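Budget justification note: compute hours in this period were largely spent on complex prediction jobs such as the one shown. Inputs:
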Amino acid sequence: MIISKFGGTSVADAAAIERTTGIVRGRLARRPVVVVSALAGVTNALLGIARQASEGNFISAVSSVQALRERHLVEVEALLATSDEHNEIGAEVSVIFDELASLCEALSVLGFITPRSLDAIAGMGERASSMLIAAAFRARGIDAVHVDARKVMITDANFGRAEPQADAIAIAARRLVAPLVHDGKVPVMGGYIGSSMDGITTTLGRGGSDYSASLVGAALQAESIEIWTDVDGMLTADPRIVPTARPIEQIRFDEASELASFGAKVLHPATIAPAVRLGIPVWIYNSRNPGAHGTRITFDAPRRAVTAIAAKRETTILRVATGKMLFQHGFLRRVFELFDEHAVSVDVVATSEVSVSVTVDDSAPLDVLVGALRQIGDVSVERRRAIVSVVGSGIADDADAMGTVLRALGHRRINMLSLSASAINLTILLDDADVPDAMRALHAALFEAPAA
Ligand code: ASP
Ligand code: MG
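Corresponding output:
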């Protein structure tokens, strides 16, 4: 059994759903369980509607509901025109939007929204898409069964970012999903949504469908989990900056995590941790280019010096120096206490005997923090920097790779340098303006150089 999860762009409209149907048909022998996102953009639209309604803009909220209903009915029409389920699915989809319209009315009277009502609304996209897609599969000869994800994805009641309850999910998945698979059917369920122990709709947080796929995969001990999206997997660099970037065939989970926190956005590895922990491989594929190899994320792929490079822009460096640090203890503790007190999160740290340099987001509120830091040392603030990460689980053991990186950077100014404790990320702070050029130079030297 495998889990095939299709993101919003893979189910954006009838044409995308046709492609997705073809992909699922090609995998029937592997007994797929299908997890789908809302049609692309629908979750954002729903959250916008909830805001409009709770701000008292009932008329505009209702016209947005109408537009969303139309959008879904157009796809029902396109996908099910000749199906005998056409009317029934159209009516069921409509019921969801009727429910949405009455919630909007209530919200606009109340003038505020609770996290619980927000989840009820946010989850409607997946409720509609999963129903529609299951029917589209059936109309194309796939024996698909819609499963209400809320009966399977049991969570706590932390609305907006509910915590899945692994044991309850395992029991529900074995009871409601596994038997369908054994009967040769294809279960289709929405990602992202769940329900609390007492049956109230919850969501797992934005982008949560990957998490759903991983949790169901772990619960059913799937052979593999496929995340279908609109890019050819993870790439060696951001192709908008480095046009020669190429897909990574295999990446370690720790490398993928490191890349995600430093700029790469294909998926958040934390969401696939439940599967990876059990040794279930997770694949990222492109539903627009299903023949491509894709990226395989595993716990123990072979170590490579460099797997990918990424840049995180809009970074500020804070440097705190004190003569008093010489032969003293407690200085670093004091510095980081102040970051903690002011709730400013730190990305990269480098220290010398008399100073410490840390990076923070350009958007971090620094005024008060800097004032406090000045009590303990000289502070300088450097804006418009960027973090360049060279990620590879073998980088610390490869002197050549490190040398190549520094040579490729040439005369560009290096503001800070750090090798992460896990030793899989060589982090270099450059001037932001140097990033595009430096990334291309690094990519050329690390991935395009002819083998020696
Ligand atoms: N539809 C939800 C979102 O846009 C969940 C997902 O697509 O993963 O956040
Ligand atoms: Mg999405």
